[in-house]
């Protein structure tokens, strides 16, 4: 049975949850991943935990080596990736503390490397244009949603997550524009991970926790990191419980596709 990659952690490396932990330092053809990978057993399933921004949160969003992170998880046998992310809401009805499992993304990053294909082999038939119409793994999404229902958490079952470059927050004009584009929530990390996971044939889904209203609301003060962190801390136990309940139900998959 294949392992499950978990990006974001949320305290899952606590000995109460993770059995037989082992750190694995890796290098990849794309450089080192953000952190050593921690293998172990979570609720009876083999998992590999990776800290997206480093274990001390020292890596800004634009500097995360997404290619190395996704490649390393695949090399350790992960066929599914379950990611977590804090995000801002672009909709009045999606409030702070809400949990959303998006089914679409908009990539508005500008400086990320979002492909493993730096060159094509000769011949148009060898051009590698990865389908991306439905970028999130539907089976994994449904497993998360079923867990939310079992736990009694009001998990929002679809939506569009927009990824900006960061590390700055949006201007009010940008935030209003993103609303017009049809985005529901906004963050700085998800789209590049999803793109690269798809290129490697890995199932990818994200649990997004709403911490703020970005910058579009005129009745809100400018967004501050300390406010975002306070809301995330208040809701991280729900996120952890949701992951713990989801992991046993994640289907195994074959690791067969090459980049």
User: Which spans of ≥5 residues are poorly predicted at pLDDT below 50?
Assistant: none
Shape: globular
Determine the CATH topology.
Answer: Rossmann fold
Radius of gyration: 18 Å
CATH first level: which class?
Answer: Alpha Beta
Order of helices and strands: EEEEHEEEHEEHEHEH
Name the average pLDDT: 92
CATH homologous group name: Nucleoside phosphorylase domain
Architecture, according to CATH?
3-Layer(aba) Sandwich
Question: Pairing-aware structural class of the strands and helices?
Answer: alpha/beta
Our estimate of the beta-strand percent is 15-25%
Total helical segments: 5
List keywords for this structure.
25% helix; Rossmann fold; alpha/beta; 11 strands; 259 residues; eleven-stranded mixed β-sheet
Describe this structure in words.
With 259 residues, the chain is α/β, with parallel strands linked by helices. It has one domain: Nucleoside phosphorylase domain (Rossmann fold), CATH 3.40.50. 25% of the residues lie in helices and 24% in strands. It contains five helices and eleven strands. It has helices at 66-75, 138-151, 172-180, 190-199, 225-246; strands at residues 3-7, 18-24, 37-42, 45-50, 78-89, 99-100, 104-108, 155-156, 160-164, 185-187, 203-212. Strands 1, 2, 3, 4, 5, 6, 7, 8, 9, 10 and 11 form an eleven-stranded mixed β-sheet that branches. Strand 9, helix 3 (172-180) and strand 10 (185-187) form a beta-alpha-beta unit. The longest helix has 22 residues, at 225-246. It starts with a strand and ends in a 13-residue tail after the last helix. The model has no long low-confidence stretch (mean pLDDT 92).
């Amino acid at each position: 049975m294949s392992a499950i990659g978990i990006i974001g952690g949320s305290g899952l490396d606590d000995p109460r949850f993770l059995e037989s932990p082992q750190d694995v330092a890796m290098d990849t053809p794309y450089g080192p991943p953000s952190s050593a990978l921690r293998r172990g057993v979570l609720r009876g399933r083999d998992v590999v935990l990776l800290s997206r921004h480093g274990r001390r949160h020292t890596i800004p969003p634009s500097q995360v080596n997404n290619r190395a992170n996704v490649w390393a998880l695949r090399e350790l046998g992960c066929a599914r990736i379950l990611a977590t992310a804090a995000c801002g809401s672009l909709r009045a009805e999606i409030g702070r503390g809400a949990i959303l499992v998006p089914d679409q993304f908009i990539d508005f990053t500008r400086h990320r490397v979002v492909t493993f294909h730096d060159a094509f082999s000769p011949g148009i038939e060898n051009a590698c244009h990865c389908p991306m119409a439905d970028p999130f793994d539907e089976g994994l999404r449904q497993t998360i949603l079923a867990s939310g229902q079992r736990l009694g958490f009001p998990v929002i079952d679809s939506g569009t997550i927009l990824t900006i470059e960061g590390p700055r927050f949006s201007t009010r004009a940008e935030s209003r524009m993103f609303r017009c584009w049809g985005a529901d929530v906004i963050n700085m990390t998800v789209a590049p991970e999803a793109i690269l996971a798809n290129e490697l044939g890995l199932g990818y889904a994200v649990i997004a926790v709403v911490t703020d209203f970005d910058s579009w609301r005129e009745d809100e003060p400018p967004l501050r990191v300390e406010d975002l962190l306070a809301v995330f801390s208040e809701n991280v136990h729900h996120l952890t419980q949701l992951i713990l309940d989801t992991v046993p139900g994640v289907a195994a998959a074959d690791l067969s596709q090459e980049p």
